[in-house]
Amino acid sequence: KSANPQWREQFDFHYFSDRKDMLDIEVWRKDNKKHEELLGTCQVDITALPMKQTNRLELPLEKHPGSLLMLIAVAPCTGVSISDLCVCPLGDSSERQQISQRYCIKNSFRDIKDIGFLQVKVLKAVDLLAADFSGKSDPFCVLELGNDMLQTHTVYKNLNPEWNKVFTFPVKDIHDVLEVTVFDEDGDKPPDFLGKVAIPLLSV
């Protein structure tokens, strides 16, 4: 019930190449669970923003009244990575020793925000639901921790896909929950849901 909503939410997005990237933003209005209406869209050219500073942007919504006020900061990724199993970041014993030293009790208060990091090896899925008429699916896996999100590549025409990828997240809140969701890629349409599991960090 507001024409001037304040969300005050922060989201982290990661990209790992020098390609040109546009941030697409949509504003939606909900009447109830069944009815939704698009109130406007806008785009931000990430490559045009100055690095290592917070950019205050007021973005008019295209073809609709209103605007969005956003703070966007572009900075090099730290603590986030996607790699193959053969080059797993924790595979080196000397690196493991350095990490143990970094997070030992005597260094606990050196950097309060540096809680630690989570490493997830996504190996494979078994007996997935068939989402296509061919009796197969085109599955990919999405990992979310807080407002961080990374995903695997798509394995086409397969109900038993193997991804063999290693994902590393910085931990910002030890009470966060790792959510792992499997989707079926469906071309230009939204992906189909194939299943999900939630793992509280405190259970690891």
Q: Can you put this structure into words, describing what you see?
A:
This protein has 204 residues and is mainly β. It folds into two domains: 22-74, no CATH class; 81-203, Immunoglobulin-like (Sandwich), CATH 2.60.40.150. It is 5% helix and 44% strand. It has one helix and eleven strands. A hairpin with a 2-residue loop joins strand 7 and strand 8 (148-151). Belongs to the MCTP family.
Task: Give the key terms.
11 strands; 2 domains; four-stranded antiparallel β-sheet; globular; 204 residues; three-stranded antiparallel β-sheet; 5% helix; Immunoglobulin-like; mainly beta; 1 helix
Instruction: State the helicity in percent bands.
Output: under 10%
Structural domain tally: 2
Output the CATH homologous superfamily of the largest domain: C2 domain
Q: What would the average pLDDT be, to the nearest integer?
A: 86
Basic shape:
globular
CATH topology of the largest domain: Immunoglobulin-like
Low-confidence stretches: none
N/C terminus separation: 41 Å
**Portion in strands:** 35-45%
Q: Please tell me how large the radius of gyration is.
A: 20 Å
Domain C2: 1-59, 93-204
Family: Belongs to the MCTP family.
Keywords: Calcium, Membrane, Metal-binding, Repeat, Transmembrane, Transmembrane helix
Membrane topology: Multi-pass membrane protein
